[in-house]
Amino acid sequence: MFVRPHAQRTILTLFIWLCVIHLLQPAGWNLKKEYLPAGWLCLVCGASENQKLPPNFRKLAKDAYTPDVIAASDCMLGKIGYGTFSEALAYKLPFVFVRRDYFNEEPFLRNMLEYYQGGIEMIRRDFLTGRWIPYLERAISLKPCYQGGSNGGEVAACILQDTAVGKHYASDKFSGARRLQDAIVLGYQLQRAVGKDICIPYWYSLAANELSLHTALPTIETSKTTSITEVCTEDFEILHGDIHGLSDTASFLKSLARLDASYDSGKNTKCQMRERVAAAALFNWEEEIFVARAPGRLDVMGGIADYSGSLVLQMPIREACHVAVQKNDPSKQKLWKHVQARQHIDGQGPKPILQIVSFGSELSNRGPTFDMDLSDFLQGEQPISYKKAKEYFARDPAQKWAAYVAGTILVLMRELGVHFENSISIVVSSAVPEGKGVSSSAAVEVASMSAIAASHGLNIAPRDLAYFVKRHVENHIVGAPCGVMDQMASVCGEANKLLAMVCQPAEVLGLVEIPSHIQFWGIDSGIRHSVGGADYGSVRIGTFLGRKMIKSMASEISSYSLANGNSDWQVCAMNSDEMEKDGRELLEVEASLDYLCNLSPHRYEAVFAKKLPEYITGEAFMEKYVDHEDSVTVIDQRRNYAVRASTRHPIMRTSVSRLVLL
């Protein structure tokens, strides 16, 4: 046990739960002396017996009573869990934590820890590379202020006991207390009484209101004689462009102005949203800031078949993503403290840095900020590959979201040869619901590239911009196998109109006026949607397997007929439709089929439908066909793919779409 001496301490003690964060560690990762500030001693819990530690790291015995060791320490480093969280609050111990993947309770615990000024988040990249010093030094300056009880075990025991014996009665069998009670007595005696429902703590309600967890922007109120633009320009000057009467854009600009005011006043309440604090210190408010808006979209017709070349109708929705971008000379760029420390450790002086703040991060448990050296996108003098960029962003799931924003910079470097010599600061605020099938990711990508391009004087055609972010950001860097429909709708769509487009790859037919007596509604099914999910990807793969099989069959039939004459060709045909005068020409076209939607339903049913298998394993397909000719998906040889249904859907759906438009 380590005891805190009464005299002024000359050694600061860090307690680290190595066993808790072992999943973060790549093979060959070891603790190093330089990870700690001078005069610090680290007490390591959970180190393996044969693990060698530097002299300023001390291995604790297996039977060490960790609560006493934690109480005697000056700081703790680990991942948030109920135990570490409770000890940090009870002992008023600063807690430097690394975000925990797929732990649903983490946002709740993290908010409470930060509300009581007891926690600092360390970016996983900095943890693995040993850049601990700025976080530890900042942690020591914290003044944890939790004054509540520390007898949680006793309280929990009383709740369990009272609930089990049915101390209070209530008829609502779906209440939290009732379910708890049923779980306790299940298998012994089912009690029909409940204890008191557990309420949301007051501090969490306060934090939810203060932090604006629903990312709702302030409402702009105008009088009959005052326009939205006039209200906005009270706080800033619009140098170029117009807000086009959009209240959400006006609200976003007002929120930026409020960040400037809060930064100048130095206000920083203990429950103020972290991303707003980070954003307030991000911009040089006397310099230009470029703002772009991109809406989500409602898929009215043709959606799932866009990667098969379908005809689609898409409608932009009211909800949109706003992105604010500012570029600055590296020597004048405002940097977060841990970024400053990183540059100081590297000893190379100011260099171009990318810093991003994402509002509303708590809704999806992602990190609210992201930063990187722009040189990370370079290998020598050339931009890195998209594959390496995908691996770069995949290292930390909590910050993988940054690929949608930062990935646009790499695309501009690779596709347009842009050299980024200045630092870039970005704020992202999106009201497009995530995981609801209304293209939240496309809105972020389009708004990000639009704002970054504008800030660097680039004029990119709408179709090219949509294709850049779809093909390279979404498909290659993020790794989501979507088509181009979402991005095109966000770039080219107009309010109260349907965008008609043939996705081959992105040919706009025009805008269809929506009659005044017709309205479209999007209803939330409650089922989360993701183009990066397994179901979406497996259906897409099944579609491309079917296309490859159809091309192969058409080629085989055509070659056989040429080699053996028409009579033999007729023998190999499945029905009389293959004996049409132009049958051979059709087969030649089908042998090089680019998009399934170009195959007519009649032709599909007559020649190919019965020859396609219902299902096929990835291994069986690759043995015969080698590749499915889709660069954005990878076949899992162990998986069974639905081929016939996946292939039939885009062919039949496009036929219906054409009939509707006619």
Indicate the radius of gyration in whole angstroms: 30 Å
CATH class of the largest domain: Alpha Beta
How would a crystallographer describe the biggest sheet? 7 strands, mixed
Averaged pLDDT, please? Answer: 80
Helix content: 25-40%
Second-tier CATH architecture of the largest domain:
2-Layer Sandwich
Explain what the structure shows.
Residues 283-327 form the Galactokinase N-terminal domain. Residues 404-493 form the GHMP kinase N-terminal domain. Residues 1-26 form the signal peptide. One of its GO terms (molecular function) is kinase activity. It comes from Vitis vinifera (Grape). The chain has 662 residues and is of the alpha/beta class. The protein has 3 domains: 12-159, 3-Layer(aba) Sandwich (Rossmann fold); 247-262 and 284-513, Ribosomal Protein S5, domain 2, CATH 3.30.230; 534-561 and 581-661, no CATH class. It contains 22 helices and 17 strands. It has helices at residues 66-71, 82-90, 106-115, 124-128, 133-140, 152-164, 176-185, 202-211, 228-232, 247-265, 274-280, 337-346, 386-394, 403-416, 440-455, 462-478, 485-492, 534-572, 583-590, 601-608, 618-625, 644-661, and strands spanning 12-17, 40-45, 57-59, 75-79, 95-98, 119-122, 290-301, 311-328, 353-358, 369-373, 378-379, 382-383, 423-430, 497-502, 507-513, 615-617, 640-642. The strands form 4 sheets. Strands 7, 8, 9, 10, 13, 14 and 15 form a 7-stranded mixed beta sheet that branches. Helix 18 crosses helix 22 (644-661). The termini are far apart. Residues 1-9, 19-24, 185-220, 268-272 and 567-579 have low confidence and may be disordered.
